[in-house]
Design a protein that fits this description.
This protein has 255 residues and is an alpha/beta fold. It is built from six helices and 14 strands. The chain has a single domain, classed as 4-Layer Sandwich (Metallo-beta-lactamase, Chain A). Helices cover 23% and strands 30% of the residues. The model has no long low-confidence stretch (mean pLDDT 94). Helix 1 packs parallel to helix 2 and helix 2 runs parallel beside helix 3.
């Protein structure tokens, strides 16, 4: 399984002969998180690289640091995409994207699920995606839903916790029986003792990825420093930790 970082919570996963771009098409200014850079978006649409023509586009939720509908629309106009998993959202931009995809018969699913009831989409042999609705973290945008997404390829599982809440272990019980190759969490989940307990006792990944962090010249809230401190305090409690902070940073995990 190869992991390539785009920006913020945007990650390209290559596994089982398929490529998934998760939360990797957002470009909304004025937020305390890094957008996908202009030059990378340009290359995604015009030059041959690993981000072109991905098999699956996946979005955990509709917040603008994860999903910008017009940026997604620009991508699907310039790339061949096998299937799109969109967040439940409203607004003219989102509706325009959904209409374009359906007019061109691009397989599209809206990830809107009951809390604590994971749903699995079978993509092809030994390849599927599971999504479970979880409350969004209370630190920002409370009272909204964020999907916990699991990508499964040839027996390896990558879990994206995105901005999922960390106050109830019950939301993650469906992960306990699975062998988790990689888990992706934001700095606040890792910083909180309740989050680390979920990671250690329920998810227990081979490799823990800390992501959802700004680039160095855009770190207005000190997240990078927080993660450095927490790595010193808690890093030895996990088998392997990788911090995704640099554009197109690449990491291999699993077999």
């Amino acid at each position: 399984m190869r992991i390539t970082f785009a920006a913020n919570a945007g990650v390209l996963v290559e596994a089982g002969g398929a490529r998934f771009l998760v939360d990797g098409l957002h470009h909304t200014p004025g937020l305390p998180f890094s957008m996908v850079p202009d030059e990378l978006l340009e290359r995604m649409n015009t030059q041959e690289n690993q981000f072109r023509n991905v098999d699956y586009l996946v979005f955990t939720h509709a917040h603008p640091d994860h999903y910008t509908p017009d940026t997604v629309l620009d991508y699907v106009r310039h790339n061949r995409v096998g299937r799109v998993f969109l967040p439940a959202a409203g607004g003219a931009e989102h509706d325009r994207l959904v209409s374009w995809l359906r007019d061109r018969q691009v397989p599209t699913r809206i990830l809107e699920h009951d809390m604590e009831k994971p749903h699995t989409y079978f993509l092809k042999k030994e390849l599927h995606l599971t999504a479970a609705g979880v409350p969004h973290m209370k630190t920002s945008w409370p009272d909204s839903v964020c999907n916990c997404v699991v990508l499964t390829a040839c027996g390896e599982n990558a879990v994206f916790l995105s901005d999922c809440d960390l106050q109830s272990e019950a939301y993650y019980s469906f992960l306990k029986a699975a062998h988790i190759t990689a888990a992706f969490v934001n700095p606040y989940f890792f910083h909180d003792c309740a989050g680390r307990k979920i990671l250690q006792e329920i998810i227990a990944p081979d490799c823990l990825f800390i992501y959802h962090m700004p680039f160095a010249n855009e770190d207005k809230t000190g997240l990078r420093g927080l993660v450095r401190q927490d790595m010193k305090k808690y890093g030895d409690s996990f088998a392997r930790i990788e911090v995704l902070v640099e554009q197109e940073q690449t990491v291999w995990v699993g077999e």
